[in-house]
Amino acid sequence: MTQNPHVSDSYWLQTAPGGAPHPALEDDLDVDVAVIGGGIAGLCTAWELARAGRSVAVLEAGRIAASVTGHTTAKVTALHSLIYDKLRRTRGPEGARLYARSQTEAIERAAEIVDELGIDCDWETRSAYTYVCDAHRVEEVRAEAAAAKEAGLPASFVTETGLPYPVAGAVRVTGQAQFHPRKFLLALAEDLVRRGGRIFEQTTVHGLDEGEPCRVSTGTGATVTARDVVVATHYPIFDRALLFTRLSPRRELVVAGTVDAGRDPDGMYITPDENTRSVRTTPYGEDGGKRLLVITGEHFTPGTGDTRERFARLSAWAREHFPGVELTHAWATQDNDPTDTVPMVGPLHPGARHTYVATGFAGWGMSGGMMAGRLLARQITGEECAWSELYDPRRLRTAVREAPSFLKTQAEVARHFVGDRLRPAPPVDSLPPGEGALVRVGGERLAVYRDEAGALHAVSSRCTHLGCLVNFNAAERAWECPCHGSRFDTDGKVIQGPATRPLERRDI
Prior knowledge:
Blueprint (H helix, E strand, L loop, with lengths): L10 H5 L13 E8 L3 H12 L4 E4 L15 E2 L7 H7 L1 H26 L6 E9 L5 H13 L4 E4 L10 E10 L2 H14 L3 E3 L4 E5 L4 E5 L4 E9 L15 E14 L7 E4 L5 E8 L5 E11 L6 H15 L4 E13 L5 E4 L7 E5 L5 H17 L6 H4 L5 H5 L1 H17 L15 E7 L2 E7 L5 E5 L10 E3 L4 E3 L6 E2 L5 E3 L8 E2 L2
Parallel strand pairs: 1-2, 1-10, 2-7, 4-12, 10-17
Antiparallel strand pairs: 3-6, 4-6, 5-6, 8-9, 9-10, 11-14, 11-15, 12-13, 13-14, 16-17, 18-19, 19-20, 20-25, 21-22, 22-23, 23-24
Helix pairs in contact: 2-6, 2-8, 3-4, 3-5, 4-8
């Protein structure tokens, strides 16, 4: 791989492409529950509900387990970087304990499913570490280890790890896991169908009527009537509780390559240093002599900065810290950070009676998505759950308490909404092949891409979600909205929401 690697499909997508696609929804349908979104949160919710005897339909705009879930690093852990010390200060010791318990039960549930269904998904038990190399941050890590242990996790402070470089200190939590997310979810989807669940791909949802029953309208023209509806689209496509103002999209890069199995660092690692670095390995090849090293970092707001330069930095870091690694893959993932730390899982808005949402997993969607599936299934079937209040999207007290994060997020959105319209626009003729930019044509600012053959592809530069201007990601060759994270291909087709409509094409 060169210093500026070409972006590939994720390793998970390449090694589990899936079988025959599920059909698009063509006819009206009546079910107990409609689940919008076919990632880990949506599929786990649908599976739990089908197991409880509900009729369920999953509506996915693309392919199931292929968007955000298909690009994750797939750590299944309750140690979410540095969160427990903050939780015990903002939510109290009981809030931290509920968070740890809910995430731990999600991991245990995943292990049960793997055993029950006999899923071959490279499930491995590993210790998880949050470490720092900066000695000035050691006390921060000590406090996190103490808070995580107080919350009920098997946590300890250590100074020795399996990494091939020294650390100043780390939190270690034993008994965590890692797996192949696509293999797991495709098997779960097969079992969902066996239980009577329906899955529809290439089916974009455009509208939601919260009557009794609810009605979900789709881009195919068909309507789903359901008693309950779950919005599990990563970033919600409907905003009926100001969720858009409480989420901040974050994109991260991933590089991966082979190392000898004897050099496996034997754990899952993350550090907040150096703009985040996350490290794990996964089985690779048939003979067991190699492992695939997966490294994540360089987080940034979608549509900002030079992504190729960031890939180069991450690749250089991988080679420096793991000499001899042969980089073979490069991809990117996207997450949404809630302004008050905890994911939002539960009723969609204060007046909701039959609509629910799951969002804001902040990079920990594997345990979070499994937790959401169980929580939402319990709420829909009328069961009690000890952590319903902790994750309730309608919470206001914590949102007010952490107002600085909320205000910072909104200031950033406002800056892009106004400032991006004031940037100078280059002439179309200056665009080299493989590049894109916002240019002015006939008084309108267009998003224009020149392909390798020299042909121009022009679309409206206004994101179809809420009207912010998109920017070009040259490494992934996509238009990205820095306000809420929607992504589009060079011809304007939606790659990732919350936008549901493509960028309008223009002739130049």
